Amino acid sequence: MIPNFRDKTKEELIKLLEELSLENNSLKVQYETSLIERAKAEADLEENKEKYRGLSEAAFESIFLSEKGLCIGQNQTAEKIFGYSNEEATEQGRYGTEWIAPEDRDMVMKNMLAGYEEPYEVTALKKDGTRFPCMLRGKMMHYKGKIVRVTSLSDITDRKLVEEAYKSKSSLLEAQSNATIEAVLVIDENQKRILINKRAIELFNIPQEIIENEDDSLLLKHVVGMTKHPEKFLAKVLYLYDHNQESSRDEIEFNNGVILDRYSAPVLGKDGKNYGRIWTFHDITDQKRAEKDLIKSKEKAEESDRLKSAFLANMSHEIRTPMNGILGFADLLKEPKLTGEKQQEYIKIIQKSGLRMLNIINDIVDISKIESGQVTIKMSETNINDQVEFIYNFFKPEIDKKGILFSKRTTLQGKDAIIYCDQEKLYAILANLVKNAIKFTSLGVIEFGYELKTKSNNSLLEFFIRDTGIGIPIHRQEAVFERFIQAEIVDKMAHQGAGLGLSISKAYVELLGGKIWLKSDLHIGSTFYFTIPYNTEIKETLIVEEKILPLESKNNLPNMKILIAEDDEISMMLVSIAVNTFCNNVIEVGTGTAAVEACKNNPDIDLILMDIQMPEMNGYEATKKIREFNKDVVIIAQTAFALTFDKNMALEAGCNDSLSKPIIQDELLAMINKHMKS
Prior knowledge:
- With 678 residues, the chain is an alpha+beta fold.
- It has 6 domains: 10-54; 59-155, Beta-Lactamase; 160-283, Beta-Lactamase (2-Layer Sandwich); 289-365, Orthogonal Bundle (Helix Hairpins); 375-533, 2-Layer Sandwich (Heat Shock Protein 90); 554-676, Response regulator (Rossmann fold).
- The strands form 5 sheets. The chain has a 5-stranded antiparallel sheet with strand order 2-1-5-4-3, sandwiched between helices. The chain has a 5-stranded antiparallel sheet with strand order 7-6-10-9-8.
- Strand 8 (248-253) and strand 9 form a beta hairpin.
């Protein structure tokens, strides 16, 4: 049997041969062969050792071997970087953690004993005390029959500097993006989110769990779900992903009405390479709303101008028509052969034309007062049944001539029909609405009245005016309450009037605390409704309108001296003729200054008819001057400025009463009778 030489050293083999006193050449051959194989194996092993030693020494990383936490070796890189010689590094009792900063040693030792193999960052410590950042990697392995740990430390100082610079720039970019009013989203070339600013999170109402989740499809899904047109939104996103060199700008709308200006552009390097894409979203909701409001305002202004132009054209017709009647029939009165009957007929036509013109002017004055806020409410005790009865009796003759059935309806009786209201405004509303019904109804029925409505302890009077006229198209029903809108209604019966009656009625109803509306069917008829509070509480301080009593007889007036202050020649003539029918002692002046002088020179003047608008000194000032030396003379103000004239101003100046032009003789004489009758 051949002995086992594989585990013997060279010296042991020689000694064994001597002891065996080899005589057999065959055994010698085997021995020599074994020696050759052994030498070759040792040479291979040495070659491998040199190879791995060279690789270790040539490594850019510091490599340490440790056993049970104690250092048993290091490579030359470690020696160069850390400053410990191999003898110093492996001297008895030196732990493998002495190359680590004190604050990280416990963690490194724990990982070493646990066999932790994942890379992590630590702070390394050189022999001279220099600290620097390292990336540590460790691995357990067998070495000479023992379990040892191989630890590598890579200097990452340069990388940390780059990272810090990147963080600084990123922080600056983030701060800038958060400071902007725009929502900002930045993605890389792989469509991965790099940055999303606070404004984007607020604007898109992004939940925290989506922000923290790396799956960006959740973010896209969330935003798409907010848009009014999700397919269009997503199609644009996908298109830009596929065409990464293109920029885009468009508008998107959310379900809640928010409108955004969306801009997207590629992030390109100097080399032309695409490094990602930036998205910005700017809230333009207010801007869009302002644009729409501006367009609406422009359209409304254009419509208003158009309607006003039509209104002025209509006014030209409305004023010229009665003027034609006045001037034309006044000219016919010159005919010397005209009979008395014809004269009276022409005079009635002139009066009717004058009243028609006066109504037009009054409507214009009323609407001007409403627009300028000069309308005041005068509350007084009002019997609504009396109001209805008066309207009925006033319009019945006119309606009977048209062959239309006219009826009224009242539901309250006695004291229940007495309310606290502005009697004049209520009359104006009812009169306007009934006149409107008459104008647009040629046959059938006109009915008006009221009902008491109670809801939630709130009582209202609901008035109605119903007709079987031409009706109003649905799209024009709101417009009829607008100023000048009458010009929009194409109907011959609408040609008379300013088209302001419904607008005035609406304003008066609202001033009284109610509302007005209508129901209408084209070619069938219309019903106008309005409400006012059912207020039965009568206040102690009622404004009672004084009634001017008719003049019983001109001879009942005492002998008087009257001063007429009037700068207009025609008005002066009209008033003088009226006064001269009962008074022969009349003084005429044309200015306020002359009125004051005439009053001083004639202290026995009993009555002054004071025009308000005069040259040199107006009627207000003249009255104040006269009151300084004459407290007793009766002064009646007269004015054509119904728009700006204020009865209270006249009373405060010292006037006893006032009349609005045109002056009607009977009204003038009745007012004189009221103040001068002994």
